[in-house]
Amino acid sequence: MTLGGGPRAKRTTGRGLSGEQQRRLTALGVTPAERPRPETTSGGKAAGKLSAAFQRGAAALAQYITREGTTTSPGATLEEITVDGHDTAVNVRLGVFMSNTRSRRDELTEPQRTALAELGVEWA
Q1: Which residue of 12, 61, 101, 117 is 20 to 30 Å from 71, comparing CA positions?
Q2: Taking the CB of residue 14, how many other CB atoms lie within 10 A of it?
């Protein structure tokens, strides 16, 4: 009988555990696994640089926040932004960007986390 993965599922992050549960596990010597911070992003780019796709998403988020006053956007939100060096506007699916970025937040570089935090994204 499976009951949601048991300790193995919780061991990696400790998410979903109450403070009391975390305290009990710590008393037993069980500690959460440390998440390594990536030094480079995929493709070998330097950690200090923001990818073009991330920059577009962050620009779209900033534009959306300016207009709507919130970081929460529906999944189907299309933000039209102008990218430096291009004459045409680009549509960014803001809800998709936010969902993907949040689900991959362990892979974000420090500059990316900082950029999101400055925009008011709580989970960054």
Answers
A1: 12
A2: 15
Q: Three-class SS of residue 26?
A: helix
pLDDT value at 108 more than 60: yes
Q: Which of 123, 124, 120 minimizes the C-alpha distance to 70? A: 120
**Closest to 101 (Cα-Cα) out of 111, 90, 112, 114:** 112
pLDDT in tens, 31-62: 777 665 555 444 444 444 578 889 999 999 99
**d(Cα 99, Cα 123) in Å, to the nearest integer?**
12
Q: What pLDDT does residue 72 have? A: 84
Q: What is the pTM of this model?
A: 0.56
What angle (nearest 5°) sits at the alpha carbon of residue 71, between those of residues 65 and 76? 95
Whether 108 contacts 40, CB under 8 Å:
no
Q: Residues 110, 38, 56, CA angle at the centre, nearest 5°?
A: 50
Q: In this structure, are residues 47 and 109 in contact, taking their beta carbons and an 8 Å threshold?
A: yes
106 CB contacts (<8 Å, ≥6 apart)? 35
The mean per-residue pLDDT over the stretch 90-115 comes to 91
> Tokens 């979903």 identify what position?
16
